[in-house]
Amino acid sequence: MSSEKDTAKRPEEEMNKDNVKPDALLGSPSPSHPKETDKGQQWPSEPPKQENEDAYSVFTRSQKNFIVLMSGLGGFFSPLSANTYLPAIPMLSKDLNVSWTLINLTITAFMIFQGLAPSVYGDLADMMGRRPAYLIAFIVYIAANIGLGLQTSYPALFILRCLQSAGSGGLYSLNSGVVADISTTAERGKYMGMAQSGIMLGPAIGPIIGGLLAQYQGWRAIFWFLVIFGGIYVIVLGVAFPETARKVVGNGSLPPTAWWSRSFVGEWVRRRQEKADPSLRDGRKSASRALAQKRILRWPNPLKTLLIIVEKDVSVILFYNAIIYASWYTVTASLATQFTVVYGLDTLQVGLCYVPFGLGAAVSIFVNGKLLDWNYRRVALANGYTVDKKKGDDLAKFPIEHARLAIVWPLVYVGCIAMIGYGWTIEKHAHIAAPLILTFVMALTMTACYNSMNILLVDLYPQSPSTASAANNLTRCLMGAGGSAMINPMINGIGSGWSFTIVGLVVTVLSPMLYVVTQFGPKWREERRLRFAEKKRQREAGKSKA
Predict the structure, then answer these.
(1) What PROSITE patterns would the database entry show (predicted)?
(2) Domain annotation for the chain: domains and CATH numbers
(3) Is the confidence at residue 87, as pLDDT, over 50?
């Protein structure tokens, strides 16, 4: 992105997130570097031409679509695991001889671990790469599901649900990191929408699958289904999913040095090319080693998430985003019990009542992504900037907060009105179509709000996108856990009408926080950039003295 007002070149760290110059990564220029096309997977047969050295990503469009599709499917497992469980709550309560309240505590515990896990996986992924983080998460996840399918007591259920969440919850932060690896800010709305599709569709599809399995095969079938589904995903991941972390593969043109970061397909293609042209081997190895030397491998530090949370603009975004998520979760967590009691539905019918959530989320994902990219271009044009989808844009003086949040305001208010209406239709025993239509509206609007703010967080922390997403996940899940724990006692005490009225009003009253971010966010962002630059200068000065 360039501007008539600001002709200075964008900072190196914005151009290349691993802070390694392109010539150090890719070697001397060559005319044979492939351009981005819609053809199948290509590894550059030689280092790229000089004019393409600073291309943000060398992955083709079809490769990007596959990568984002796999990433989105990975993110699908956490909400799928959380929500296939919901229709089986009455069955579990009866079979394990415990109250609904105790079963609901397993939901709260699941969300707490869902919030904590990405703090570990996010730092691991930013440090070692996306593939090893995915593989570790799925080993934990599949093992937990095997245990859940075999357990026979409430304590075992509680502990294994926590372990299941520790595995699947880590996947949430990874898909945001993958999108940041391969897409510029100008196209990030579209790709983030695709990557977030799994996260948003899980709450809708999960109860349907869970309802069918529990109704006809028993609740244990839910966990065996997750074992099989997770196993198939891991096989595809190991065979075909490439490493995308910029600290490991640069802009995608370098083969990773560690075996766990290599896909079978990528290795097969690379070896064929190097067999045809042996000179490629040494150039690629030296460039990859130069990049690897800049990485410091250590134990993941979950406290890095807290360092992001305390930033002024980030803290405001995280808090309000968590409030929106918690309000949405009060609906999803209570729907099964409310529709069972009020409308007398069975397990399968309750699962089908989550379909409007899925439809609303699906529409929101694809429409909101395009809307965000359109608004980004509109704001850029209004401020005298041009958009560069190939190299990426300099956000130092660009009002990215306005570009991302401008569309959130009206959606928040529509969603809150729908939530209040939903509560009163349940309270008054209105026709079942009324609350179902309102759940569609809530899913449509709340998903768009949540997704927009998540993209903004990645924009603010492009150098550590998985860690930024982990911070988002931590706050939203802890807030969501509180919402799921309090909503049923609230409904029992004051009724669903006033309960959801209070929740909707809280979201509405706190909406001026969006204005605070839009108004003061650019200033806070610049202060952070200068502070980081000074710390980097001091570190380099200390190294030179040593």
Answers:
(1) MFS
(2) 64-244+297-537 (1.20.1250.20)
(3) yes
